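Contributing new complexes? Match this layout with pyridoxal-5'-phosphate.
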Amino acid sequence: MTNTAPIDLRSDTVTRPDEQISAAMAAAEVGDDVLDHDPTMRALEERAAQLLGTAAALWVPSGTMGNLIALMIHLRRGDSFLAPRAAHVLNHELGTAAWLAGGMPEPLEWNAGPGRPTADVVRAQSDSNAGYDMLRTKLLCLENTHNGAGGAVLPPHEHAQLVAAARDSGLRVHLDGARIWNASVALGVPPAALTVGVDSVQACLSKGLGAPVGSVVAGSVEFTTEARRVRKMLGGGVRQGGVLAAAGLVALDRVDSLAEDHDKARALAEGLVEHGWSITAPQTNIVLAAVPDVQLTLRRLASVGVLAVPMEGQVRFVTHRDVSKADIEETLRRVGDARI
Ligand SMILES: *Cc1c(COP(=O)(O)O)cnc(C)c1O
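Output block (do not edit by hand):
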């Protein structure tokens, strides 16, 4: 009666292309997007722009490249930028914000809640009119949902306050919306309600929605035109990218289904609490668990076929479309049986 097939809760990026995605990819109408435009990429970019409430959007191979392109446009050497502590652009992009985009990173404390700085902190840490020998703060980079804070959501009114503080301080605003779709579903507002006032936004198609590859970076027509040049500079121009964009178009039709991932995360969190775990209540599809020894817990979980990753000194589980409610029950059974 032992079923030990691994249950992969490491990330919502582990999903495999299903039949619908594969069929859309196989049937995609394509062109050479480096020479002129691939029609399916163009369709995806128009749809993404519409959903995100921007004038235009650009397909990019990864969220990391999307963020980097935006930061390269917004920053130059001698600048600094603000981002909430443990943001992806600070901790998970190999320092490219500094060594490629030229901006010195300045983390903001989470004094409004998990992953959320207050507008006062943004004002206090902005110095765009400093002396000639000082860094000039030029950009606020927000993250919604905040991955390192356990998929924490930034609600629209706080977003608006942070954007207003940035504007008052002469800063541009980039939103790392890798999981903006999750934030939108959790808050019950359209994604465009979470991008109000930003200069650029990056959103992933390969997290939770099931596309194997791809993100979009979006903003004004001027921004997107420049982003296309920077994408080429970074080696991110692709030829018949419609094959990949077709998967993204299917993905964008699936945003509502993320609510199921949020239900699964809640069920996982509640079950772990019943087993005595110390859990931060999930707001979206990420569950963080505080444990005495993260590596030991991860090894014990792996030994019973439950895969998770370390995140900000805790254990991170992520629910996604390739784990079912039954898989969550099975996860809890394994954790309970092994007394982890
Ligand atoms: C995953 C992630 C990214 C980067 O996306 P990739 O496609 O993996 O490069 C950026 N920001 C956040 C918040 C993420 O979670």
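Reviewers usually confirm one structural detail per submission. For this one: The mean pLDDT is 96.
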